[in-house]
Amino acid sequence: MVKFMQKVPAGTFLFPMLLSALIYTFFPGVFNIGGVTEAFLGGDHTTFLIAMITFFSGIGLDVKGLGKLFKRHGVLFIVKLILAIGLSFLYMTLFGQEGILGINAMAFTIVMSSINPALYLSLVGSYGEDIDTGAFGITSIFAIPVLPLFIYSFQGGGEFDWMPILSTLIPFFVGMFLGNIDKDFNDIFKGGIAAVVPLLGWKVGYGLNLLDALQASLVGIVLVIIFYVIMSLMVVTDTLVLKNDGVAAGSMLGVANASSAFPAMIAASVPAAQPYVSDATAQILATAIITILVTPIIVNKLYEKAHGQDDKKKNQQKA
């Protein structure tokens, strides 16, 4: 079974996620019995798993490799920020909060601001380089409502809270500190990321209602197409400007399912956005599910184009 999952792009993440999503769709409270079972199989404590992976990513990163990390991923994140912030403001200016094609401004802003860190980690683990996993902590910032809240706060002239960004990065720097002062920490936690990814996949899925996503699938497909067209500029930057294979940038083309909770958070701070919460939530959920299924195919094609089938098989065996 494990070998079969490894043959599918991001399979060790996707299969547990789809199984738990299927269970949640039809039996949403089946594991709500308290105690260890609910903690293990329920949808809570995802943040702890993300913190663990962020910590493991830091441990495995040599300080000497920081320059390479920022040179590549720093550029990609800057491109992501420019596209998300610039186009969100432009969308609101041109179409208002109601948007166009059934896509309201809140859904557009949140989707453009999102990266699925679990999907990213799974894909770079199979197709990327070791340095790519070091960027996991930064991708996690795009899985919390920091950027969309910043956009709405800036638009409304409100204050912005920097604490979520600091909170996300602290486990990464703690891990990096320990891993560099004593290399034996690498031996202790070696394989930690690979062990946690299937568990994270399960946690991510247990909270996805596939029927709700299906109802918003048509608008979700339109939103996904727009997302891929715009964010493909990251892949162009990675391949043509940075002269890489595009795997790292392609692995960032996912929408975090947690982003579907952001409309309610934004509406709590921006009451004018309240009427759009329901539609935005459904559209973002549909977009998250579609990108989880499609993005691995895109990354697989990018890798094959750059390296061929033989290297792909080696990487899958490594993963």
TrEMBL record:
The chain crosses the membrane at residues 12-33, 45-63, 75-94, 100-123, 135-154, 160-181, 188-208, 214-236, 248-270, 282-303. One of its GO terms (molecular function) is 2-keto-3-deoxygluconate:proton symporter activity. GO terms for cellular component: membrane. Belongs to the KdgT transporter family. Keywords: Cell membrane, Membrane, Sugar transport, Symport, Transmembrane, Transmembrane helix, Transport. It comes from the Bacteria. The keyword Transmembrane applies. InterPro entries: 2keto-3dGluconate_permease. This is 2-keto-3-deoxygluconate permease.
